[in-house]
Amino acid sequence: MAELNVITSMLDDLSKEQPVHTAICIGQNLEQYDLNQTIQWCYFNVSDFLNLPFTQRYDLAFVLFDTDETLNLSMQDKSKLLVKLRDLMAKRLVVVSRLDDEKLLRSLGFTQLIDKTMHDNDFALWQFNILTYKHVPDWFNSKFWANPENWNKFRW
Prior knowledge:
Elements: H1 4-17, E1 22-26, E2 40-44, H2 46-50, E3 58-64, H3 75-89, E4 90-97, H4 102-107, E5 111-114, E6 124-129
Parallel strand pairs: 1-2, 1-3, 3-4
Antiparallel strand pairs: 4-6, 5-6
């Protein structure tokens, strides 16, 4: 598992950006480590979570793919888990994974938080935040939508 001090500092940084009141954890129960008193943690194992109906949206989802419970998951199950979390269950999603999961995480729109070349361990830290997923291009604004000066000049 990733170092607890890395997780604690990351939670502090995420809380500064936007308050985190509820969090869901998959892979290992982080509630037992008493990381942050203000966060209400809910823990699920992978099979229970995949069968869980949508009941609430959490502020943060934390997935650990480097634990004994999640090491033997297939890529299909990992993909199902991440897509359900990303699309339904969480506003922000943080994943601790092994380096061989990079292709899957990049294809699902995750960005890397810790560069894998900066340490010797076999883990990487990824995030998905819908607010920073895609930057709005410059041309995508109302100035370029309607050109009223050309309404009677050109046939569209």
